[in-house]
Amino acid sequence: MVLPSVGVLAIVVGYPVLYTLLLSTQDYNLLGVTPTRFVGAGNYHKLLDDPTFWTSLANTALYTFGSVAVAAVLGLVLALVTEDVGGRRGRVARALLLTPWAVPFVVVAFLFRYMYLQNGGAINAVLLASGLIRAPISWLNEASLALPAVMVTNIWAMTPFFFLLLAAALAGIPNEVLESARVDRARGLSLVMHVKLPFLRNALLVSSLLMIIANFNDFAKIWAMTQGGPGYSTTTLVVYVYRQAFENFSIGYASAIGVVWLVLLLAFAVAYLRALRVH
Amino acid sequence: MSSASRIARRASMLAALAVVVGVAAASHDASAEAVTITFANWAAAEGTTKPAIEKVIADFEAAHPDIRIRSEAISFSEIARQLALRVRAGNPPDVAQLAGNDTFLIAATGKLEPLAGYIDADLEAQLKPDAMSGLAYQGKLIALPWTLAPAGLWYDKAVLQKAGLDPEKPPKTIEELTSAMAAVRKSQPDVIPLGLDTTNRPFSLQSNWPWMATFGAMPLGDAKARADSPQMKAYLAWMRDLAKNRYIDPGRKIGEFRPLAAQDKVAFIWDQVLLQGVVQNASRMSDADFYKRWGVTAQPAGPSGRSYSFEGGHQLVMFADSKQKKAAWAFIQYLATSPTAIRDYTLGPGASLPPLVRMPTPELASKLDTPIFRAFTTSITPTVTTPAYGPAFAAASSAIMAGVQQAVTGSEPIDQIAASIQQQLDRR
């Protein structure tokens, strides 16, 4: 019964992965300027000495874990705050909170890109008008600010996902559990910490894992906002792979980065799933 | 109904049927004989030029009933990637529109048809020698120039006047440009003094190459080329000063400055001929008003004492695997030299210069007799310099432009940035 599914998976997942592994051991240029040759672990050795690869890896980790952690906390807070808001007001509030999730990521990226503009951007206009800054800030063009600015965009777009899942998980907590906690005089923060959070643990773990994988692979937002710049300050692994594969046409080297990226994600997913099983 | 009218009605029905069958048969014959060639281009992918290229293709098909063109719209930034993949997959188009380094990237695949054998003496006499000189790869002519579009320093006379500058005397040196930008910044804080593309893409390196050159810098090319030379450091330091003084707005693509230029929000802009069309489209300005408001001049000379420009025009290439080379060449030649194609496309909405020595009609010659076209032809085109195009240029562009961005937006010492660019280039 499972044979057809295994067959399909072997074609759509297995073959590309194996072919990428094969390519990663070759000096393969898409333009065919130099003949393709087997280099063994040569591309992996090159990676070790490539500072841009390490910068990209660090940026990927910061972008992924930073965005997911903040969005998860915000989603949780919003789910808890709106938990008891019922009726029309509740429906409107939830609909509004979910709106960012409905906006396509590329649109979100362009919206924020224009809001961040040094000249004519809405964010600078508001900050200048309120007297919080004296001169406009170059949000996406300051090496130290660009990554946090892109992360804010990502968090804005991703928070509704956590809100949605956690709100659903909150609604699933049995009433008897909450009632008995209240009988035991659990209120406010103590009710959240000792009763609700343990019930949300699995939902949080699964949603975080999904979002970590999605953010690890996030290309559209970063490319549309900064193209990995200024310098390499927002270059993540996926942006670096794209540049290597489709600007430098170094498919072999790009494949080696892709393999490292896949291994990292797999290792992380396995660890995460184990944690989920333990709990 | 009388029998006479019945006969007349049947006769007319038969006649109509005969006409329909005749037309169908004729069109079947025509389509059976017609060859179809595929044309990959971004002209059909952009709103400004789409109607013009569609009209030119329709005119060509009308003039050549035996050739059909299947236009494949691919965006400017994607076309090289898609063509490289298609060449690798053995499925290239017959003809493609390319520009700048992309032409040489695709030539590096070895799958472009050398064109020298197609150019007869008559056509050779029509084409500007300068337009042809930079289009050889490994000694073979691999493209025919379609349009010429060097970059010049455009200046908004109204902005300069408000800044207390003489609008008829644009800067001739980097020092004059710097002091003019300072005056603009001081008098009009909401105006960007210089529109310069500092994004990280091969086009940006092409656009910044003349600025590096006027400082005497050449980060890529022959054996002497280095990114950590004193000249390159001087260029990077100048760029940092521009950003520090807020004379440039880093991170914008050149296309994003154009609408601002149309609103008098950019004093100087380093751009190609097409700026005129964009500004006029956006502001509904007449030709006469545009010439009163805008001027264009050669790049202000830097420490090297020379002005430079880059050629951003478009070329046409034919793929060696094309089965319809004769038809493909007829189409290429038509696009580059026919009076209708020049009128409707080359001098149309995305205006650029035709690659011809002389215009084929007096009407076209008069269209080129404007202050802007004259400035481009006489003072800017002679300053064009061609970078060391090819696969190495594409690979180096992200390292060099990342370094430029670091200089513009960061605080790392310039020496360190220049050394880092050179290290990255050495690793390739």
In summary, what is this structure?
The complex is a heterodimer of chains A (279) and B (428). Chain A has 279 residues and is mostly helical.
Commentary on this structure:
The complex is a heterodimer of chains A (279) and B (428). Chain A is mostly helical and 279 residues long. Chain A is 74% helix and 1% strand. Chain A has helices at residues 3-23, 42-48, 51-82, 87-102, 105-115, 122-129, 143-171, 175-183, 188-216, 220-225, 237-246, 251-278; strands spanning 26-27, 37-38. Chain A is globular. The two termini of chain A are 32 Å apart. A 5-stranded mixed β-sheet of chain B has the order 2-1-3-11-6, with helices on both faces. In chain B, helix 10 (230-244) crosses helix 18 (391-409) and helix 18 packs antiparallel against helix 19 (414-427). Chain B is built from 19 helices and 11 strands. The radius of gyration of chain B is 25 Å and the shape is globular. Chain B has 2 domains: 36-142 and 314-351, D-Maltodextrin-Binding Protein, domain 2, CATH 3.40.190.10; 152-310 and 387-427, Periplasmic binding protein-like II (D-Maltodextrin-Binding Protein, domain 2, 3-Layer(aba) Sandwich), CATH 3.40.190. Classes of the chains: A mainly alpha (279), B alpha/beta (428). The interface between A and B is medium-sized, with 31 and 36 residues.
